[in-house]
Amino acid sequence: MKAKQHFRQAKALVVLVAVAALGLTACTSATPGGGASSSGQVVTLTLVSHYTDDTSPTKQTFDALIAQWNAANPGIQVVSQPVQFADLLTTLSTRQAGGQGADMFNAYAVWGQLASNGVLDTPPQAVIDDIKNNYNAPALAAVTGPDGQIFGYPSEVDTAGLFYNKQLMAAAGYPNPPTTWAQLQDAADKMTKMDKNGNYEVVGFPPTKTFDNDLNTAHPFEALWNASGAKSLTNPDGTSALDSNAQTLLQMYSDLVSSGAMSEAIDPYQAFPNGQIGMFIELQWYVSTLQSMMSAEDFSNIVGTAPIPGPNEGQVGSVSAVYYLGVSAASPHKAEAWQFLQWFNSVTNADGATTFGEDMANGGFIPPRTSDDQLLESQAVAQQPLLKPFWDASSYAMGESNTPNGYAAKTALHNGINDLVSNGTSASDTLGKINAAINASSTS
To answer: In this predicted model, what pLDDT tens digit does every residue of 124-182 receive, in sequence order?
Structure first.
């Protein structure tokens, strides 16, 4: 999560977020349901999120919206309780079990166990209809459980794309980025370079694993696999959905490890700006991180982004990481909590975009609400053309599995890829280990 926080801190310096003017620009009423509790007494609602950095535009927007609601709704007061992302799942699980849970929380959709463990309240029908009718495909898929349960309002959508070094790619004989797995493998091999002592000068296609508590080797694999037509890491019953295309992809990884083109010898996040990485797969927040780390000339000359290729020409894929705002099943004030969240996700600025959705777009993320996408995509891409593959991916990206064992399945995939990359485990053995771990987690 540190890399993502770095992005947000850097973005705060270069993006003008109209937080201070929220009270002037917000057009939607702050009292859609009257702003009073059903009992007539003052109700205090707690909201746990992972937005802890006070310099972050999102944290500022979050706090400003809460302040706006509280000023207009004296009968229903909202208190923000931020926690570090690394502690978020534990906080939500243990506090709920101990009867000390928050009324509302911002959770990662891959944590399907929150739904299966009865932590989540079922939204009222008006909220369900709003989410089903007004949110983009990755967002809706992420907050819809295998039994059709809606978890809550999608709040943040990240999609994955291919980052590549334009100069190294051209020198490898590719004036344009690869459009098939075979081209990706060939380009990675050709871009990889070592000095006479066997030390890496360039790694062609390294695994990535900094975001999401070091489980991010799963994201590139899932994005490439999605380009072959895959829809989910797990089946509805939680068992592994890895297929023959996944076996082929693992074999490509194994071949890249053998050739030296896939290695953990160099940290891609530090090395890419220095010209030591040929290409790798990451979420769209990394665009602005690179822009903040590099000179304008180097950024323009080196950084390219592209759709993630599939086995055949014309196939593209991605994976989306989605967060959502939900209500605790144990809250004594569920009606008031949903009232607040319905307002929070619909209050709009003067341009017609929702306030929180516009913050997402200003920060380089994909707003989950389709009306925001339509209003803001052209502006965001015009300001930063490198974001186009990520916005395009919002129409086809595979959501992470949110079955009750979704996070365990993702962990199994990550561990298997690590084993292949670090220890040279064969593709067939790796697939067998991943499948066994996922299937075991589906019954635990």
So the answer is: 999 999 999 999 999 999 999 998 999 999 998 999 999 999 999 999 999 999 999 99
Distances in Å between the Cα of 370 and the Cα atoms of 68, 130, 131, 157, 354 are 24, 11, 10, 12, 11
Q: Are 280 and 205 in contact (CB under 8 A)?
A: yes
- Name the pairing type of β-strands 316-317 and 308-309: antiparallel
Residue 144: beta bridge partners?
Answer: 150
Q: Residue 138 and residue 341: Cα distance in Å, rounded? A: 20
**Rounded Cα distance, 219 and 330, in Å:** 33
How many CB atoms are closer than 10 A to CB 237? 12
Question: Among 299, 247, 308, 259, which residue's Cα sits nearest to residue 281?
Answer: 308
Q: Is 441 helix (H, G, I), strand (E, B) or coil?
A: helix
pLDDT at 232 over 80: yes
Q: Which helix H or strand E contains 398, and what residues bound it?
A: strand 398-399
Amino acid 29: pLDDT: 44
Superfamily grouping for domain 2-158+321-398: Periplasmic binding protein-like II (3.40.190.10)
What is the homologous superfamily of the domain 159-319+403-442 according to CATH? Periplasmic binding protein-like II (3.40.190.10)
Return the top range by mean pLDDT from 56-60, 205-209, 280-284: 280-284
